[in-house]
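Fig. S4 source data, part A: sequence.
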Amino acid sequence: MGRIDYLHDPDAPPANSVVPSVVALVENEAGQVLMIKRSDNGRWALPGGGHDVGESISDTVVREVWEETGIKVEVLSMTGIYTDPGHVLAYDDGEVRQQFSMCFRARPVGGDVRTSSETTQVRWVAPADLTEFDVHPTMRLRIEHAMDRTRTVPYIG
C-alpha cells in the first residue's frame, strides 16, 4: 500500500484516523544507526510501526524493529512524542492518519539484518552519512532528538 506524507500542506486531505505508533533509533556498538528504506513511500526512516491491542508500547518497539529489520532490540528510553496535526499520512485505501508517534532509543541484542514486505533495504548507517539519505523532515527531527542524549526520558515499560 502506498503512502504520501503531508506536512503543513493546505492541500492535504483531512485526517480520518489516529493510530499510536513507534519508531526506534537503534545504535550498534560502532555507533551506527539502523535505517530502513520503506516500501510504501521509498524514503529512509527509523524502523517502527503501529501499536497493537494487547501490547505494551515497548513490546511494539521490539516487534516492529524485528519485523522490519531482523534485529532483536532492548528498549532503553523514550526520546519524544510527536503529535503535529499538520502532519498527515494518506494511504491508498483512503485512510488519512494524523501522526501520533513515540520515538525510543534501543540497542541491538541479536538477529541478522534482513528486509521485509515493509522494507526494501535495511542498513547500519554512520550518523555523519545520514544527510545523504532521503529522509522526511519529521523523521530527521526524531533522529536528531534521539541522538541528543540530553533528551532521554526514563521509560518504564
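Fig. S4 source data, part B ends here. The chain is about 15% helix and 40% strand.
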